[in-house]
Amino acid sequence: MSSGPIFVSVLEGEGSIGRNREIMGATDPAKAAPGTIRKDWGKDVEQNAVHGSDGPGYCGDGDSFLFRPDEILAIFTLTRWWAHERTELEAQY
What we know:
Elements: H1 16-24, H2 37-41, H3 56-66, H4 78-83, H5 86-92
């Protein structure tokens, strides 16, 4: 699946899969929109520079394959911090 160094991440949040797929671009770099990762860095369908989940069912499988549970960390955005009580967020994580 890779031919060089990789960067692996776990994204979460409402619409995160769809938004990430927009940033990645179409699987075929020739058909990807300008400014997407695949358009800018992909060579062809097989070497398209990036891989990402296409649905929630796939995400969990990839996460456990690539990460131990203690390696997945929660990152808070300023919006989430102000939208919830601090103790409520601390209890979740």
